[in-house]
Amino acid sequence: MFKFKHAAIAVITTLVSGQAAIASDVLPSADSTFRMWGEEAGWNIMVDEGRNACLIERMDENANVIQMGLTKSHEFGYLGVFTQNAKVKSRKEPIVVSLDGNLYYGEARGKTKNLADGYVGGYLLTNNPKFVEDVMQKHEMVVFPEETYVWIVSLDGTLKAIEAARKCNMEVNG
Q1: Is residue 104 within 8 Å of 131, Cβ to Cβ?
Q2: Contact at 8 Å (CB) between 32 and 24?
Q3: What is the pLDDT of residue 10?
Q4: For 116-126, how does the pLDDT look when each residue is reduced to its tens digit (9 = 90+)?
Q5: Contact residues for 76 (Cβ-Cβ < 8 A; gap 6+)
Q6: Please, is 112 exposed, middle or buried when counting C-beta atoms within 10 Å of its C-beta (0-12, 13-18, 19+)?
Q7: Please, where are the H alpha helices in the chain?
Q8: Which of 15, 108, 133, 171 to pair with 8, CA 20 to 30 A apart?
C-alpha cells in the first residue's frame, strides 16, 4: 500500500496540474441554480442552469453523495464524491478511484463554501471515454481519499442515469 500511494501521488500530481485551470469550472458558483429534470434508476437528473449542463446525483445508504456531469465548457466530464465520514487534512489531497482495477486520479478538497456542511470530497475530471464506459458498466467504485481510508460506492443504475443525462443535455443545449 505504501508504494502504491507514493506512485499514485506522483501520477496525480502530473495529471492534476494540467487540470488546475479547469477545476473552478467544476465547482458550482455561489449563484448556481439547479432545476430538477427527472429521475432514473435511483439517480436525480438535474440541470445546472449556470453551465447549461445536466448532472446526475445520488445519495447512498451511508449518506455519501455522488455527482457526475459536464464542466461549463462541456469538454470534460466530472465525477464528484462527497462524504461526512472522512477527514481531508488539507485543502487539496490526492484521490484515487478504482473501477475493477482501472485507476483514475483526482483531487479531494477540504470543506469549501460550495459543499454542504460537514461534507468533504473531490472531483475527478476526465475526457477519457474509457472512464465513462467503466462508470456505466461497473457495479462499484473504490475510492481512496486518504492513506488508511477506503470507501466503496455503488454504481447501480449509472448506465440508465447517464443515458438520461445525455438526453437532458440534448434538450438543454438543443
Answers
A1: yes
A2: no
A3: 30
A4: 667 777 778 88
A5: 19, 22, 25, 26, 70, 125, 126, 127
A6: exposed
A7: 2-23, 129-137, 158-173
A8: 133
